């Protein structure tokens, strides 16, 4: 009888369906970045400007995040996409590798936008095609989703300043960090975009990788990933490549969210900067 029960248990376990993890967006430019750039440009050209995009976030004042850089990706074959990035020295900017390359699209050049709360107008605008992606970047799982952009030297002032990089073994779980970006405010057919198109920020609780992996699986969430909890406040489409900051230290680079949308209360994933600290410094 015991043997029969053991065999029955093993058979049931083998017959159980595999775990179904939440899918992530991998065709970023086609699904999000290109249409997002067109929508942002159209609304920025409107007459009314007073802020919006990260879900549940607040508008940012010029100079509030002097390390933030908007990013316009000019793609091979035409088209323009939108991302965020972070100034880490006078001539280096950090972003997500998928802002430069996906299975479907390859970047041709970036326009790095500093000293502006808007993406298509104002500020210091720098062109660059000197991009170094991490050699371990995986376009399907978004593992090692990090890249460094080389730009001309910029002078620091109240509105342009680099940020320190996280280092060490602190996992930051239980801390509240701040995400910054130009992305959507919601999942509506219009992209949640209104006439309010300035840079925004939102506070998000950092969770353990174990919690995050229960949603996205261990192929996507590895030790060099850092995640924040999902709620009514979250990063959203178009925030890719932007910073996750804690106590004026860069701890994450926005990498992925649920393909189901940013208002579903699911976690968001970032490249863990402390895991890439040595690699980033080798590119400076």
Automatic annotation (TrEMBL):
InterPro entries: Peptidase_S1, Peptidase_S1_PA, Peptidase_S1_PA_chymotrypsin, Peptidase_S1A, Trypsin_dom, TRYPSIN_HIS, TRYPSIN_SER. Residues 1-15 form the signal peptide. The keyword Disulfide bond applies. Keywords: Disulfide bond, Hydrolase, Protease, Serine protease, Signal. Residues 54-284 form the Peptidase S1 domain. SUPFAM superfamilies: Trypsin-like serine proteases. One of its GO terms (biological process) is proteolysis. PROSITE patterns: TRYPSIN_DOM (PS50240), TRYPSIN_HIS (PS00134), TRYPSIN_SER (PS00135). One of its GO terms (molecular function) is serine-type endopeptidase activity. It holds the Pfam family Trypsin. Belongs to the peptidase S1 family. PANTHER family: FI18310P1-RELATED, POLYSERASE-RELATED. This is Peptidase S1 domain-containing protein.
